[in-house]
From TrEMBL:
Protein name per Swiss-Prot or TrEMBL: Uracil phosphoribosyltransferase
Sites where the protein binds 5-phospho-alpha-D-ribose 1-diphosphate: 78, 103, 130-138, 203
Name of the top EC class for this enzyme: transferase
Pathway: Pyrimidine metabolism; UMP biosynthesis via salvage pathway; UMP from uracil: step 1/1
GO terms for biological process, alphabetical: UMP salvage; uracil salvage
Gene3D superfamilies according to UniProt: 3.40.50.2020
Catalysis: reaction(s): UMP + diphosphate = 5-phospho-alpha-D-ribose 1-diphosphate + uracil
Binding annotation for uracil: 197, 202-204
Tree of life domain: Bacteria
Cofactors demanded by this protein: Mg(2+)
UniProt GO MF annotations: GTP binding; magnesium ion binding; uracil phosphoribosyltransferase activity
Gene Ontology CC terms, in alphabetical order: cytoplasm
Length: 213
């Protein structure tokens, strides 16, 4: 598994405001959107392209165009939905599939409550959107779901990752014969005893959309 921490002063600036407990929901949503577009630029470095012949006003040339099949973008509900627009700004012709997943806050185990994706993802590059990689349970299950359907290249975009979650994910996916990359704005210090990322930003879903229950 490849981990890429995007090191850029604008990313760090926006992330600092995002983490601040006094940042309100509208600002949190806007910063999430902006950060994802910056992360997506790095995350799509390996997006597949094919040659394309075109004619400019001056003459013929060969450029590149996004290859078929189109990339699949998969936001993990609920919090990943806050990352979708920022991603689609960069990949407007991508297809979008949805996974609804929730972590049990007692056991920290992830479960899937909704799914809307093609049955066959053979040969597809997938971009998974989830702001928080905490224990890694949610992302591991999501990646497994996609590779079980045939996805052959996975890149996850996260705002924050915990070292414990990255290690768990690496171990969980050891047997996987598919390239997996994680692109994140920061690798934080640790998880606390409730499985929250420290210093983190709190509950991403609640900060985007309000308290769930
Ligand atoms: O790495 P993990 O330990 O699995 O935790 C990370 C998951 O927890 C959060 O989702 P949550 O269960 O709070 O659902 P929500 O997005 O609906 O708030 C977050 O958005 C991730 O999906
Ligand atoms: O810190 C964390 C951990 C899991 N989910 C969140 O939203 N935040
Ligand atoms: Mg949540």
């Amino acid at each position: 598994m490849r981990l890429h921490v995007v090191n850029h002063p604008l990313v760090s600036h926006k992330l600092t405001v995002l983490r601040d407990q006094d940042t309100d929901s509208p600002t949190f949503r806007r910063l999430t959107d902006e950060l994802v577009t910056l992360l997506a630029y790095e995350a799509t470095r390996e997006v597949r392209v094919a040659p394309l012949d075109i004619i400019t006003p001056v003459g013929p040339t060969t450029g590149v165009y996004l290859a078929q099949p189109k990339p699949m973008v998969v936001p993990i509900l609920r919090a990943g939905l806050g990352m979708l627009d920022g991603m689609m700004r960069l990949l407007p012709t991508a297809e979008v599939g949805f996974l609804g997943m929730v972590r049990n806050e007692e056991t920290l185990a992830a479960s899937t409550y909704a799914e809307r994706l093609p049955e066959d993802l053979s040969g597809r590059q997938c971009y998974v959107l989830d702001p928080m990689l905490a224990t890694g349970g949610t992302l591991a299950a999501a990646i497994r779901f996609l590779t079980d359907r045939g996805a052959d290249d996975i890149t996850a975009i996260c705002l924050l990752a915990a070292p414990e979650g990255v290690a768990n994910l690496e171990k969980d996916l050891e047997d996987l014969d598919v390239p997996v990359a994680v692109v994140t704005a920061a690798l934080d210090e640790k998880l606390n005893d409730k499985g929250y990322i420290v210093p983190g930003l709190g509950d991403a879903g609640d900060r985007l959309y309000g308290v769930a229950h």
